[in-house]
Design brief:
Helix content of chain B: over 70%
Oligomer: heterodimer
Order of helices and strands of chain B: HHHEEHHHHHHHHH
Order of helices and strands of chain A: HHHHHHHHHH
Helix content of chain A: over 70%
CATH superfamily of chain A: MetI-like
Radius of gyration of chain B: 28 Å
CATH class of chain A: Mainly Alpha
Largest sheet of chain A: none
Shape of chain B: flat
Number of helices of chain B: 12
Strand content of chain A: under 5%
Largest interface: A-B, 86 and 81 residues
Strand content of chain B: under 5%
Chain lengths: 276, 311
């Protein structure tokens, strides 16, 4: 093969790869543009001050916004201690077989389809109590969040210089002192990043909530009762035949994607700040 | 008076002593260690708990109808017919098709991102966009597809002479492809980064073009990792629910052609679970168990290959 044809082949290949790469991310911008176009006109005071209403009466998404905040924050409160402790366990006993099994388990949990988490939490909490509740939704989301947070905890712990640990242990620090005074303070930024990314992921989840938090057209602050979230509202309104509800759903989508993007940007910012 | 004072002193001493003994019994070290163990046990228990719970809850269905009734192709909860083969078939079909479609795209973007001489600005733009694509909630993908993609599909259907429905297998495959690209591209990107730089440089120093280096050095080196990435994204697409539910058309039979409406296991569950009770619910739970076992196996296989490729 002459050098000319080889160079030509290389050129064609480079162009093709570039073209396909651009084509790959094109949908993201189509989605963002469409969201901004359709959602911006729906953004008004009603959307964030009124609760869901029957068709014909101008309603909003206040109940879903508050529900999203409550359910995701509760899930974070449940998942974070469990994940951080599990991460510490994996790190402290990293030479043991049980830690290797835990590592595989965490990966398997992240692969469980979200709808299955919904079914199982339904069987654990909704069926025995006989009612849908926001708390069961939080538990479902917490299970979704655990793998992310455990992985980021372990990765952070592995980056802490071994010398610091050895120094504190050599000074006679106990197991708990070593963890609470040396290891955890150093790894807070890394853990926080994992928590924020996990929070961004669960804030947009719908499937685990279908059979647990269920949705609720009224403003509800009681975690033992059904509660609405933004993704649930988008799902229900998107499939309805009403133009007015579609509009509210676009506005809700814009708010939701804004929340998710902010959380992701925040996480990236912490990483870049911490690496410096 | 004197007596009372002495009594109080004795009592308070007692209380202090008791606190001290509790402190000794449950010192901080022990509390922390116990919480570590409990958390780890909880996490270990989740997967097992899931499988056991689903097994127990689907027992009703297995006892009264048996496994073989699942293999039939009629799904009618009113007559207690729970043939689920169309859903199992559609689930595997949709995720395989979207995986195949995603391969050229995720490979291209992984190759662009790993080019060490490439435009840094463009690469960080691609990288950020890929991360954002992974962060967009599934329900928003579904909503967008329902309102922009399905009218386009309708146009295509009229041109090709199919019934213009807009929703169906084809639309679901396209959305799913878009959704899994960031995932498989992310893994390919990591794996390609792991290819030793000396190998690449050796190729260039022998006069190879970039295309030749990629084809005969990078891709063969990263092959098993890339395949593992594709298997893992297959695992993800098998269980994807919301976007698929919104655009697949909710039709309980074998799809007749690429455009016809259908149902995957997860979209069937999403559509029917809340209204189901008794045997119907048990059948749906058993389908969920099947889905869980398939995804767990696929994920284990992917993780196993990925681990082998890193050694």
């Amino acid at each position: 093969m002459s050098i000319k044809t080889r160079k030509k082949k290389d050129k064609i290949f480079t162009l093709l790869v570039m073209f396909l790469s651009i084509l790959t991310i094109l949908p993201l911008f189509l989605i963002l543009l469409y969201l901004i176009k359709a959602g911006f006109s729906a953004l008004n005071l009603d959307l964030i001050t009124k609760v869901s209403r029957p068709i014909g009466e101008r309603g909003g998404a206040l109940n879903s916004i508050i529900g999203t905040l409550i359910i995701s924050l509760l899930a974070t409160l449940i998942a974070t201690p469990i994940s951080v402790f599990t991460g510490l366990f994996i790190f402290e006993y990293r030479k043991k077989v049980v830690s290797k099994i835990l590592n595989i388990t965490v990966r398997l949990i992240s692969g469980i389809p979200s709808i299955i988490i919904g079914i199982v939490v339904y069987l654990w909490m909704v069926k025995p109590l006989g009612k849908y509740s926001a708390l069961s939704g939080s538990v479902a989301l917490a299970i979704m969040m655990i793998p992310n947070t455990v992985t980021s905890t372990v990765e952070t712990l592995e980056m802490i210089p071994i010398g610091l640990r050895e120094a504190s242990l050599a000074l006679g620090a106990s197991f708990a002192k070593n963890i609470t005074k040396v290891i955890l303070p150093l790894s807070i930024p890394g853990i926080l990043t994992g928590v924020l990314i996990g929070l961004g992921r669960i804030a947009g989840e719908t499937a685990p909530l279908l059979f647990t938090a269920f949705g609720n057209p009224f403003l509800n602050l009681n975690i033992m009762k059904p509660m609405d979230t933004l993704p649930l509202l988008i799902y229900n309104y998107a499939l309805s035949p009403f133009e007015e509800w579609h509009k509210i759903a676009w506005g809700a989508s814009l708010i939701l994607i804004f929340i998710v993007l902010i959380l992701n940007v925040l996480a990236k910012w912490i990483v870049s700040k911490w690496n410096r | 008076m004197e007596n009372l004072k002495a009594l109080i002193q004795r009592q308070s001493g007692n209380i202090i002593y008791r606190f001290a003994s509790i402190k000794k019994l449950l010192n901080f070290d022990k509390i922390l260690k116990i919480s570590l163990f409990i958390s780890a046990a909880l996490v270990l228990g989740i997967v097992l708990g899931f499988v056991v719970t689903l097994c127990v809850a689907s027992f009703d269905f297995l006892k009264s109808l048996g496994f073989s009734s699942l293999l039939k192709d009629t799904w009618n909860p009113l007559t207690d017919e729970f043939g689920a083969s169309p859903f199992i078939f559609t689930t595997i079909l949709v995720s395989s098709l979207s995986l195949l479609l995603s391969i050229p795209f995720s490979l291209s973007i992984a190759i662009s991102l790993s080019d060490k001489k490439g435009n840094k600005l463009l690469q960080s733009f691609l990288n950020t966009s890929l991360d954002l694509m992974a962060a967009v909630p599934s329900v928003i993908y579904g909503f967008w597809a329902l309102f922009t993609l399905s009218p386009l599909v309708r146009l295509l259907q009229t041109k090709l002479g199919f019934a213009p429905m807009g929703v169906g297998l084809f639309t679901a495959v396209i959305v799913l492809t878009i959704m899994i690209i960031p995932f498989s591209a992310g893994i390919s990107r990591e794996v390609i980064k792991l290819v030793p730089q000396e190998l690449e440089e050796a190729g260039y120093s022998l006069g190879a073009t970039r295309y030749e280096v990629i084809r005969s050095i990078i891709l063969p080196q990263a092959k098993s990792g890339i395949i593992a990435g594709f298997i893992l994204s297959m695992g993800r697409s098998l269980g994807e629910t919301m976007a698929v539910t919104m655009v697949i058309g909710n039709f309980n039979a074998f799809p007749k052609n690429i455009f016809s409406p259908a149902n995957t296991i997860s979209s069937l569950i999403a559509n029917q679970f809340n209204e189901a009770s008794g045997l119907h619910q048990s059948a749906l739970i058993f389908l969920g168990l099947i889905l869980l076992v398939i995804t767990l196996l696929v994920n284990l296989a992917g993780a196993f290959i990925l681990k082998g490729s890193r050694r």
